[in-house]
Design brief:
By secondary structure, this protein is of the alpha/beta class. The protein contains four helices and eight strands. It has a domain of 118 residues: ABC-type transport auxiliary lipoprotein component (Rossmann fold, 3-Layer(aba) Sandwich), CATH 3.40.50.10610. The longest helix is centred in the first third of the chain and has 26 residues. It is extended.
Length: 213
């Protein structure tokens, strides 16, 4: 009995030691653990994808001082047309501004005016009109990416690029399934399936009424 217990402990040790070494490799930056992407809502999926991309970018970065690195984040674009984006590309850029900021990066919002426009319908500080924006920014890095659609969904490749040289200093990759992709690209109103129930209609019979046939 004692020999059997010792033998079992030896087998467990043979299994646990390689797993512990693998975990140390991941923690040391050698590998990235897999993460499941996909939620019950479009917002949950976007948050998961953005967090996963930001974790990779922060993990793979080739930067010394993160807080001194001024990063401008642009819309993610289609791989076959680098001057077109969609709801997913713009939403990813907005989410990544938050994710990179909370990780200590100096994020620059180049869509911010140098004044507040006060109107009866609200007060506005953001704009996409180049004439209303600052003409110069001190930016060290650009962060953007491409969206490659395929039969299964969309592969997202993000990268941080040094502004003055075009050198890639960090990369990240994620995937969104077709089901989750349709939720993100929709108007946010789930489709309602129409169900038609057919049943025979019997004319109501009033009390003391006699039907003659």
């Amino acid at each position: 009995m004692k020999k059997q217990i010792l033998g079992s402990l030896a087998i467990i040790s043979m299994v646990v030691q390689p797993l512990a070494a693998y975990a140390q490799t991941i923690n040391a930056g050698g590998l990235q653990p897999s993460v499941s992407i996909g939620g019950y809502t479009a917002s949950a999926t976007l948050n998961q994808v953005s967090t996963f991309l930001a974790n990779q970018l922060a993990h793979n970065r080739n930067l010394k001082n993160v807080s001194d690195s001024r990063v401008a984040i642009a819309s993610f674009v289609g791989m076959h047309n680098l001057e077109e984006t969609d709801r997913l590309g713009m939403a990813l850029a907005e989410n990544m501004m938050h994710e990179m900021h909370v990780r200590g990066f100096g994020v620059v919002d180049f869509k911010t005016r140098d004044n507040i426009k006060v109107r009866p319908n609200g007060d506005f500080v953001f704009s996409r009109d180049v004439q209303q924006l600052r003409q110069q920014y001190n930016i060290h890095y650009f962060l953007s990416g491409t969206i490659n659609r395929n039969a299964d969904g969309a592969v997202i490749n993000a990268r941080m690029v040094q502004a003055d040289t075009g050198t890639i200093v960090s990369t990240a990759q994620s995937f969104i399934s077709n089901r989750d992709l349709q939720r993100i690209l929709s108007d946010g109103i789930p489709a309602v399936e129409k169900i038609v129930i057919e049943r025979p209609i019997v004319p109501p019979v009033r009390q003391y009424t006699v039907n003659l046939r």
